Structures are given as structure tokens and as C-alpha cells.
Amino acid sequence: MTVRTITPDEHLALLRTQRSASFLQTPAWGQVKSEWRRESLGWFDGGRLVGAGLVLYRQLPKVKRYLAYLPEGPVIDWSSEQLGDWLTPMTAHLKRKGAFGVRIGPPVVTRRWSADAVKQGVADEGVTRLGEVPPTERSPQGARVVSQLQELGWRPQAVEGGFAAGQPQFNFQIPLRHRDGEQAGEPRTEDELLKGMNQQWRRNIKKAAKAGVEVSQGAEQDLKAFHDLYVHTAERDHFTPRPLSYFETMFRALNAEEPDRIKLFLGRHEGDLVAATILVRVGGHTWYSYGASSTEKRDVRGSNAVQWAMIQDALAAGADVYDLRGITDTLDPDDSHVGLIQFKVGTGGEAVEYAGEWDLPLRPLLYKAFSLYMARRGR
């Protein structure tokens, strides 16, 4: 196995053969993260391209050395019994490129919890973390990946904080295909998805329709309206919003790479924008990426309406999964984050734990200096 730089076109061609690959591993995402140096990596078995990855290089202050970051990647055969065959030539290549350390995010599931299991955990006063709830399913492959990474000297990173705040280790997803029985692999119907939701979600979807909430797809020129609502949401929910230019770059770069890779959904009531969301798709995987909602007219349930429209869109496109992205692992009713989990649990999907982010120091002293620098910044 050899690793070398490939063109964005070669990178994209490999991704088109994958049923699931993170949008953070697309060549276009490197354009969105324009403040970082980027590189498309290819894995070759002989002359055949068998894997790909987007590397983002973050420079250490005042030194031409970099942390090489592959968010939710690379896209390789993670079922391999010999991950060293894949990772060792990658780290050698990155070291030659000036990396003092490497951070990866294996797109490998370790545990799953059904919506019922999560709800039971929230209701149990003795449980404060998702990890304390017995999982509905454990992944032997996920356990194998974690074990091999440890043997190869990789270090797991803390879920909170970390480099660029890290990517979420816990996500909430709705499977759009049957997993078991005679229908395994077959798409679920809209009726089946609605039946899987809790009563409040179904009621809110009906309430939005009855109130006259209309959901449409927006174009790039509608991003300003989305962004105004998003800034309003940020003020209400106390987070720092990204600038409009970020979403404009994201929209152009992702849609230039593949038509319909990114979509904007707008929910209006009597002409007022009450909810807006951004969807991203790669292969059979669809993500709810960003959302915004108005404080006024919350009773018309615009957020539920746009979520349902995106789920319907994903189902119509033949997607395998609708991904509501990150959740924290807290189930403590006194923690403000638990409301987000409860909102997502209502969809009837499942909580999914990934292997998380892992570091390999290549130049230990520089890696230690970087870790101290990040700690001083509050990580």
C-alpha cells in the first residue's frame, strides 16, 4: 500500500464509489476551510486507488510545522484486520509534509442506543450519561478499530473541546432502510417513519401543516434570509454565529462539486420565515447541518415542518440514513444540553457513538508544545 497526493477529481471519483463518506472528507470541504492548507491523499494498492482522505494542515504559531487533521476520515477500509497497512504509509507521508502530529476521526460506529433506551436513560434519576445506559447494539468492528489504534500508538482525544472543538463523537440518526428481517435493505415508508416518531413530533408536524406552514427549497440568494434568522437563533440560544460568507462559500463549493450536495429549506408562515435548515448529502448519507428558527410564531411548529421536509427529501433520494448530527452524552435533566437530545429522540431514530478522534504524535516535543498552546487557549 502506498500513499501520495491525488487531484481533487481523483479524490471525488473514489468518493462516488462509497455509499457513505463524510462531507468533511470531500475536496469541496477543503475550499470551505480556506484558512487551512489542504491536500487530497490517495491510497494505492499497486496502481489501483483504494482509499482517499482530505487533510487540513493547521500551522503551529511561528514554526513551519503542522497538525495534519482528517475530520471524520480518512475514507479507507476500516474493517481491515491490519489497519497499520493503511495508517503507517499515511503518517510517513504527512511527516514528510511537515506534520508534527496527525488527528483522524474514524467513521466507525462503536455503540448504538434505540430511542426507547435513551428515553429510559433520561427518565432514570440514577443515570447522567449515555454511556451508563446499556447499548442496544455493540459493534465488533468498532471495538476492533479502537483496539488496533491503541496498539499502533494513537491516543484518544477528549470529547469536549479539543482541536477546532472536534467533531461530535455522539450523533443522532434516523435509519431510512430496514435493517432486519425479510425487508432488510428495503427503504422505509413515510408512514413507517411517522409511526416511529413520538406523539408530540407527529402532532407538531400536523399542527404546522394545519397552520399553513409552507416549506420550500431556497437558492443561494436566499442565504441572507437564512443567515438573519440564524443570527437571531444564536442570540437566543447563546452561541457564536458564523458569518454569511461562510455559508455562501459552503453553498458554492459543495454544489459545484455535486448537484444537490447541499440544499436550503425555508419554512414560511403567512410570508414570515419561521424556520430554515441546511441539508448536505454524500452518497447514501444525508445530514441536517445547520438550523435556525424564529422566537415568534413558535406555536406554528416550523422547525418540525422543515425537518420533516428534509427527511422526506432524503427518503425520496434513496438515502440510507438521515443524520441529525451531534448530541452531547449528558442525560442529566438539569443540563441545558438534554433538551437537544429530547428533541432529536422524538424522531424515533437512534443515538450512535463513533470511535472518536485520535492523535498520533510524530514529533513529540512539538506535539506537546501544541497541546499546551491549545490548553492555554481554553481548548
Automatic annotation (TrEMBL):
Transmembrane segments: none annotated. This is Peptidoglycan bridge formation glycyltransferase FemA/FemB family protein. The lineage of its organism: Bacteria, Bacillati, Actinomycetota, Actinomycetes, Propionibacteriales. Belongs to the FemABX family. The keyword Cell wall biogenesis/degradation applies. PROSITE patterns: FEMABX. It holds the Pfam family FemAB. One of its GO terms (molecular function) is aminoacyltransferase activity. GO terms for biological process: cell wall organization; peptidoglycan biosynthetic process; regulation of cell shape. Keywords: Acyltransferase, Cell shape, Cell wall biogenesis/degradation, Peptidoglycan synthesis, Transferase. The keyword Nucleus does not apply. PANTHER family: LIPID II:GLYCINE GLYCYLTRANSFERASE.
